[in-house]
Amino acid sequence: MKAMMKDAVILFLITLVSGLMLGFVYDLTKEPIAAQNVAKKNAAYQTVFPDAVDFEVISDKPDLAPADVSSFVQSNGFDADIDEIASAHDASGQNIGYVITVTDHEGYGGNITFAMGIKNDGTLNGVSILSIAETAGLGMRAEEVLVPQMPGKDLTKEVTFTKSGNASGNEVDAISGATITTTAFVNGINAGRCVFNDLLLNGKGVGSNG
pTM, whole model, 2 decimals? Predict the structure, then answer.
């Protein structure tokens, strides 16, 4: 009985110390990790909108809250969330477009998160992948194959993909052997397109849509 009590006390102490150490490590690293994530996001915004000198987060407005906008795109058939929306400004402070951060949930390896920059005329300015966990040599080639095809796409129209290798207009060439990744990526682009056309154009927002 004493031996069991002793073992229980030792186990409790080990668990307590481990918990305290984990808590200490978390407190020590959470701020640097948060700062790193912000830096990564800012770099992505600048990549998709190099002409912008400032970005103002506008998804903290009631009619553009991420949860409501995500529900909106899901009601339109997209398995995606909208994480953040920012207004891109030029040197004079004028709005020149938007950056929308999208997380599509249909990837082969899970979520694919990217920032997409859209000019006010509906032209896709660029895309920067923030997080992806697809198969090495296949879906992980999204950065290499899909992203370079995005600039210049007309988001007043749906973006589609082809397996022929001869994309034209608003088509993109799929990643060979990675149709699921390609589908998820293109669906994410179209989810962002939905937000731009239905909620941001003319400043309608979720509350006034429809």
Answer: 0.81
- Reported as half-sphere exposure (CB side, CA atoms, 13 A), residue 201 has a value of 15
All structural domains of the chain with their residue ranges = 54-208
Element (H, E) at 110: strand 110-119
Q: Give residue-wise pLDDT tens across range 16-42.
A: 666 666 666 556 565 665 566 667 788
- Strand duo 171-173 + 160-162: pairing: parallel
CB atoms inside a 10 Å sphere around CB 131? 13
Q: Which residues of 22-39 are buried (b: 16+ CB within 10 A; e: fewer)?
A: eeeeeeeeeeeeeeeeee
d(CA 207, CA 210): 9
In degrees, rounded to 5, the angle at the alpha carbon of residue 196 between the alpha carbons of residues 195 and 199 is: 65
- With residue 143 as reference, give the H or E element that holds it: helix 142-145
